[in-house]
Amino acid sequence: MKKTAVVLLTLLVAIAGIGLPIWLAIEESERQAFKAEGAHALGYARDVVVRGNETAAQVEAAVVRLAPHAAAPCAPVAIDVMREVDLASTYIQAVGHIVGNRMPCSSIVGSAQVLELGAPTYRSRRGALVRTNVRFPFAPQHRFLVVQFGDFGAILHAGLPIDTAKSEPDVALAVMSFDYPAPLSARGHVDPDWIKRLGDRREVVFEEDGYVVAVVRSQVYRAAGIAAVPLHYLHGRSQDVAMRLVPAGLLAGIVLTLAILYLARQQMALPFAVKTALRRKEFFLEYQPVVDLRNGQWIGVEALVRWRRPTGEIVMPDLFIPIAEQNAMIVKLTRQVLYMVCRDTHAFLQEHPRFHIGVNLAPADFHSEGFLDCLQRTVREMGAAPSNLILEVTERGLLDPVVAREVSGALRRHGFALAIDDFGTGYSSLSYLESLELDYLKIDRSFIEAIGTGAPTSQVVAHIIGMAKDLGLRMIAEGVESQAQADFLLKHGVQYAQGWLFGRPMAFGEIVRQVQAREQAAAALARAAS
Predict the structure, then answer these.
(1) DSSP character string of 139-203
(2) What are 254-264's pLDDT values in tens digits?
(3) Phi/psi at 489 (5° precision)
(4) What whole-number distance in Å separates Cα of residue 231 and Cα of residue 239?
(5) What pTM does this model have?
(6) Average pLDDT over the chain, rounded to whole?
(7) What string of DSSP letters covers 215-275?
(8) Are 477 and 497 in contact (CB under 8 A)?
(9) What pLDDT digit, counting tens, does each position of 263-281 carry?
(10) Is the pLDDT of residue 18 over 70?
(11) Do the Cβ atoms of 209 and 191 come closer than 8 Å?
(12) Cβ proximity of 188 and 172 under 8 Å
């Protein structure tokens, strides 16, 4: 009897020894999956809020611009201003004068056609009359929003603020106003009551109705962004882990089960892989030449970080940079980039003191303690001047106006050059850029690609160039791939460019060889001429 009890106890202990780690692994896989999908949904909701904020800001700016023409709102000069506002806006489809429920003139058809708008849906606390379901005869299949302040209003495509997450069409997205109970713009299943879960918080994540839902409050307007990721993403993630752990635990016992649990918790997570890559120094740099369009000389490079995994696979920054930013590793990655820039370029810069290196910064770098000291130490170890570094930050990195002004001012006072990167894809206004201390404006490749195509965005390049000239900024065009693009940019006063027309990203040793070859060719020509 005792022997039987011992056998049973041993069996129970063995089952517990194998079963408990499996149960823990399943629980952990579900927790990790919820955390990952919650961050996934939060990212989308935050993007919706940023898009909504910029849309509202552009509408208010358009009305202010048109206000001086209230006495003759449909005069030719007023319609010209409407079209200028329309062209300069990234989210507004058209602007126009509103009388009652009609738009007698607009940037889209001038005064040739009166647009019927219908009655307003609601009035916001800011005094805006909002129409949420406007359709026009020339685009009956599309729904538009019309936002009106006073005698002027803006026509907005209803889907534009939620035009994100295109690779995952079953992710539901919405923009909601606290002044109106239904979504202003929505895709997929969105419960309007989800906005109530915010309470007094800025953002919240929860599971409901078969979705992992994130709701994010705008800090500027009475609105919120909502994103709902279907639970099948979460279940698929957790089930994949569980299906591996259970058979392995039954066959291999406690040791193998614990090993798989460790892998499930850490090694299978991409954040852990990035953390490991930082520790093992798996990141490396390639450099793309920056060319002076006026004479074709290579006057600098942009340092581009890449990740070579132990398998030899090259991972591009579009994948690992967001992971590093979301998991508080981006500052350490920036420090490694600065170290590699110093290692690669210090000897070359001794002989080429006017050559510059462009380094990309993240918003978190602006907030990190000792960042300025790190930059100054890097420059000292390079044996270079601060002006040899061009610090590139995207418009998203300048969204905090107080930090942006303080840090940009401090960097400029210490001699570093500052560039706003991918300009035209973000949310910066002309007045805001005027308040910052910048040296360069980099025009995003999406606008360069449109040059000469007749696409609507092809007209934006000239507007961006005009803004840069007004601000006294030097310009660098990104993604130049044809001589026609280069000729257009040079003709319109853009000084510098980078892209495959001039050189693909390469190791710095190849940059050195090509610069030296160009110098030797130039010297030979000079000798021949003399």
Answers:
(1) EEEEEEEEEEETTEEEEEETTGGG---TT-TTSEEEEEETTSSSEEEEES---GGGGGGGTT-SE
(2) 554 444 445 44
(3) -65, -45
(4) 12
(5) 0.52
(6) 83
(7) EEE-SSSSEEEEEEEEHHHHHHHHHHHHHHHHHHHHHHHHHHHHHHHHIIIIITSHHHHHH
(8) yes
(9) 445 444 678 889 999 999 9
(10) no
(11) yes
(12) yes
At 121, is the secondary structure helix, strand, or coil? coil
Both tokens of 166, joined, read 């295109």
- Of 509, 468, 458, which Cα lies nearest the Cα of 488? 458
Q: What angle do CA 238, 240, 241 make, to 5 degrees?
A: 65
Query: CA dihedral defined by 507, 323, 174, 179, rounded to 10 degrees?
Result: -110
Tell me the C-alpha distance between 215 and 45, whole Å. 6
Residue position matching structure tokens 């202990």? 13
Are 49 and 225 contacting, i.e. CB atoms less than 8 angstroms apart? yes
The backbone region for 528, taken as left when phi is positive above 0, alpha when psi lies in -120 to 50, beta otherwise, is alpha
Tokens 């270079």 belong to which residue?
384
Q: What is the Cα–Cα distance from 403 to 393, expressed in whole angstroms? A: 13
Round to whole Å and give the CA distance between 249 and 26: 12
DSSP line for 314-346: EEPHHHHHHHHHHTT-HHHHHHHHHHHHHHHHH
* Contacts by residues 98-104 (CB-CB < 8 Å, ≥ 24 positions apart): 98/146, 98/148, 98/151, 98/152, 98/153, 99/151, 103/146, 103/153, 104/74
